[in-house]
């Protein structure tokens, strides 16, 4: 691997979006068109390091992010565990650490699930974009839940 600019990274088949919530619009500025590329929304509607939640009204964070990414196939994933758990040895305890994902595009979700498997995780599909809040921090009942699947 070699470092690339964020403009070059945004041209990948699967793009990860993981920035402070208030910086999402600026991070995406000028990066489209998305033309059906998969964007993994790994964000939560909080501002680090204070962890102050944002009021999104009746929308899920994925719905808010999707509005900023016309033409992208959005999958909410990699957002419910602390980064230290994501970078740890996924086989340390003999199982596969569980990651949740949600989205409306079945083939995009399948691609993200396959990536999770290659990285040593067990992916669990929560359903559509509205269900993504179940694993969202703060308030989602699955947020910070560190589970392992033993197969």
Q: What would you note in describing this structure?
A:
The protein has 151 residues and is an alpha/beta fold. It has one domain (6-149): NAD(P)-binding Rossmann-like Domain (Rossmann fold, 3-Layer(aba) Sandwich), CATH 3.40.50.720. Helix content is 23%, strand content 22%. Strands 1, 2, 5, 6, 7 and 8 form a six-stranded mixed beta sheet that branches. A two-stranded antiparallel sheet has the order 3-4. Strand 3 and strand 4 form a beta hairpin.
CATH class placement: Alpha Beta
Corresponding CATH architecture? 3-Layer(aba) Sandwich
CATH-defined fold name: Rossmann fold
N-C termini distance: 32 Å
Quote the beta fraction. 15-25%
What is the H level of CATH, i.e. the homologous superfamily? NAD(P)-binding Rossmann-like Domain
- How many helices? 5
Main sheet summary: 6 strands, mixed
Would you identify the regions where 5 or more consecutive residues have pLDDT less than 50?
none
* Secondary-structure content class: alpha/beta
Q: Helix fraction?
A: 10-25%
User: What is the element string, with H for helices and E for strands?
Assistant: HEHEEEHEHEHEE
Shape: globular
**What count of domains describes the coordinates?**
1
How many whole angstroms does the radius of gyration measure? Answer: 15 Å
Give a brief description.
With about 150 residues, the protein is of the alpha/beta class. The chain has helices at about 5-10, 25-30, 60-65, 85, 105-120; strands spanning about 15, 40, 45, 50-55, 75, 95-105, 120-125, 150. The chain has 5 helices and 8 strands.
């Amino acid at each position: 691997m070699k470092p690339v600019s964020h403009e070059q990274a945004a041209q990948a088949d699967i793009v990860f979006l993981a920035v402070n919530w208030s910086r999402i619009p600026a991070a995406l500025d000028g990066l489209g068109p998305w033309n059906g590329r998969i964007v993994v929304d790994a964000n939560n509607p909080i501002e680090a390091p204070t962890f102050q939640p944002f009021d999104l009204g009746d929308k899920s964070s994925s719905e808010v992010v999707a509005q900023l990414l016309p033409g992208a196939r959005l999958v909410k994933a990699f957002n419910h565990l602390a980064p230290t758990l994501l970078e740890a040895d996924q086989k340390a305890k003999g199982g596969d650490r569980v990651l949740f994902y949600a989205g409306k595009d079945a083939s995009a979700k399948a691609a993200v699930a396959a990536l999770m498997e290659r990285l040593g995780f067990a992916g669990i599909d929560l359903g559509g974009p509205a269900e993504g809040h179940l694993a969202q921090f703060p308030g989602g009942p699955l947020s910070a839940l560190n589970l392992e699947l033993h197969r």
